[in-house]
Task: structure prediction
Amino acid sequence: MTLDQFITACDFNSLVEMDKVCHLAFFYLKTKNVQEFSVAEASKWLVDSGGATPNRSRLEGKLRSSRDTAKAQYGFRLKGEFIKELEGKYPEVSPRSQEVIDDGTILPEIDYKNTRGYIVSLAKQINASYEHNIYDGCAVLMRRLEEVLLIHSYEKHGIAAVVKDGNGNYLPLEGIVKDAVGNTALSLSRNSKATVEDIRKLGNFSAHKITYTCKREYISEKIPEFRALIGELLHKAGIRT
Result:
């Protein structure tokens, strides 16, 4: 939430001066982690929000006597009761959690639980993007997880060099998939040999094809094969036994 949005939400212009200061202090506490503020800062907040310059001596007296503020080491702070009150009124002011909430539609938690943090994160993002109709994003993330696990599988089998260029960099996924399909040391199953190319194409179209838009059905028809592929690659990479 921006300052302008907060000002509108709390009907700022209807508030008296002291309430305006406390609301602004709450906003900056939540968005900028401003734990304490001076009279000068409070005065600037009022001006920046479109008000007139207050009398600082009078404002300091109000801050000292307010039931919503308390003296702090470098000025004033909001009291906990007031913070809780405004948290209830304006929960959207607090920064949103970075936790990805998903229902396991494509990859159930059991398929990636207790693997590695970045694999868990990718799996949850794949699920959440699909569940929120972000199909191009989902396809690209599916492609990325496939690439990550293919590379780990090559590393686990001690054959990573065959999918690197002369400078020691990994080949584009197209080159890795081309090798993986025929690599006897990696020994992908017949279904996975077909699926790695399908998922690569699906993600490539969403990432690079200008007029292309991924649809739900393009992904949904691949879900069983994708689950099986990820399970197989986790095993070949030595991440799951």
Q: What stands out?
A: The first helix runs from residue 3 to 9. Residues 3-93 form a domain with the Arc Repressor Mutant, subunit A fold (CATH 1.10.10).
